[in-house]
UniProtKB/TrEMBL annotation, chains A, B:
Species, as recorded: Lysobacter soyae
Binding site for ATP: G122, D123, R147, S210
Protein's name in the database: Thiamine-monophosphate kinase
All copies of domain PurM-like C-terminal, residue ranges: 151-298
Catalytic activity: thiamine phosphate + ATP = thiamine diphosphate + ADP
Binding annotation for substrate: H55, D258
């Protein structure tokens, strides 16, 4: 049930795209897309929705919305060790605003092009601003990273820094200035696609910390049948975070989610390899704890060890 | 960024599902699903969104919403000749209402089970009621049905009857009684999956008439570089439609869309085969015109031939 206006929108979106891939047999413009998945890989697929006023504040830069709506999905693919390939975009717009759409597609296709991802389909509808993206990728089946493979004694690592996006949002909502470094973390998170691929074969588990590192580690614990001990003092922070985060709110901000870093486990024998990998990828990798027998996430903070309740970002 | 409430919703949805498939390597519960696509088929993928108040009236039976949100996507796969396999569900709910969700999943999984489709992922978020479904399926690459293959002289066929859903909606909004036959067409459309598969190899083009048969035929004309001549008097109607549709509104209702029938073309030599197929599938197949050289959709109505403007259902 599409109107002429919707066809114009779809045509506009289609023409903004520059990437082509030989495995797209039939892209936007028929009842469905037709794609050629590689025979020797598993297909990896995820879908996330961002709603205005829930996942991003009213007035967010449309470029940031476009970028982030794809980024959160590429982050999920990265957490499986998958290389992204295709995506679909379901865009619900309150009105047909070409200028907004141009900026949105700028952000969306900039990130898509950076990862050689082709938009192959989707839908445009009328309603409150909401963006659902479905992303697909591939991984050799036996090398996929999951939540269930952590072993007792494995180190727990996290990429990048934690809490920057949450601090940016907090300062923005409080009417305080937000340094560019923090704003970028909120608006244009970098999905750790290269890291995810590089971890294939030796990381024993992996998850993206979109829901907050402690909550997400809780999922790995449950799936792997283990406990996690995390050193709160080891959680990596950026210089901007270090300078601006109120002391009493640091842990809360660092475990609020919206970070899109990878939290993964690996046997201690891989420490040197991971130090080298961090250098090669120019990406901070920090060891924050280890898996033990038991259950739940236990946080040591200034010498104190306590079972921690989940602290994820709650918007449902 | 998921809260405990969202995890409960996902867990509830997960437990409502009964279908299992060996090609689902990893379903709901990790960062992404992992799937094994068959090497000798193309992957076919589509995604459609239904918004409350736009695509279905406020107060629609949740079972119908669940059914229809999947059906409209299976209809797109059918139009490619694809067999469905997996789907993802992005569900945006104004509140966490278990009774509503139970009825929604009843409808959704009833249709999914009928087509051996497994829900492998998605998202639940807070916001105005909106449902995005992404559906996947397979078709042998060389046998896929597209919009671009119609030839001069090919017959144009349509499955089922047209206008029932539009008439149901019109009567409902006018406060008039709606016979069950019409209500079913609106609430629980039957995606023509078996027909789509059966048309592989001899239908020269295919599209689902979700946007209205004349508008959708216009897309086939554009993609195939042809004109279509349609006999308005041949458009198939149900007995209920015939009895209740106001004479002056018939063509408008029949070309309003929301019908989810397949409109396809085939060389005249296949007429007998299609009559047999209709009998085998217990599904009405009606010849409504033919493709000619030229462009646009031309409608003959009571002897009158006129180029027709698009009359699709406009909600954007």
């Amino acid at each position: 049930m599409k109107s002429a206006g919707e066809f114009d929108l779809i045509e506009f979106i289609r023409t903004q795209q520059s990437v082509v891939r030989p495995d797209v047999l039939l892209g936007i413009g028929d009842d469905a897309a037709m794609l050629q998945a590689p025979a020797d890989h598993a297909l990896v697929m995820c879908s996330d929705t961002l709603n205005e006023g829930v996942h991003f504040p009213v007035g967010t830069d449309p470029e940031a919305i476009g970028w982030k709506s794809l980024a959160v999905n590429l982050s999920d693919l990265a957490a499986m060790g998958a290389c992204p390939s295709w995506c679909l975009l379901n865009l619900c717009l309150p009105e047909s605003d070409t200028r907004w759409l141009e900026r949105f597609t700028n952000g969306f296709f900039e990130l898509a092009a950076a990862h050689d991802v082709v938009l192959v389909g989707g839908d445009t509808t009328r309603g409150p601003l909401s963006i659902s993206v479905t992303a697909c990728g591939f991984v050799p089946r036996e090398l996929a990273l999951t939540r269930s493979g952590a072993k007792v004694g494995d180190d727990i690592w996290v990429s990048g820094t934690l809490g920057d996006a949450a601090l940016a949002l907090r300062r923005m909502l409080a009417g305080e200035s937000v340094p560019a470094e923090l704003m970028d973390a909120l608006d244009r998170p970098t999905p750790r696609v290269a890291l995810g691929s590089a971890l294939r074969g030796f990381a024993s588990s992996c998850i993206d910390v979109s829901d907050g590192v402690l909550q997400d580690l809780g999922h790995v614990c449950a799936a792997s049948g283990l406990a996690a001990e995390v050193a709160g003092d080891w959680l990596p922070v950026s210089d901007a975070f270090d300078a601006l985060a109120p002391r009493e709110a640091r842990l809360q901000l660092q475990s609020s989610g919206d970070d899109y870093e990878l939290c993964f486990s690996a046997a201690p024998g891989y420490r040197n390899l991971l130090v080298d990998l961090a250098e090669k990828l120019d990406l901070r990798l920090t060891r924050i704890g280890s898996f033990t027998s038991g259950q739940g996430v236990h946080l040591t903070q200034a010498g104190r060890l306590s079972a921690l309740e989940k602290r994820g970002h709650a918007h449902f």
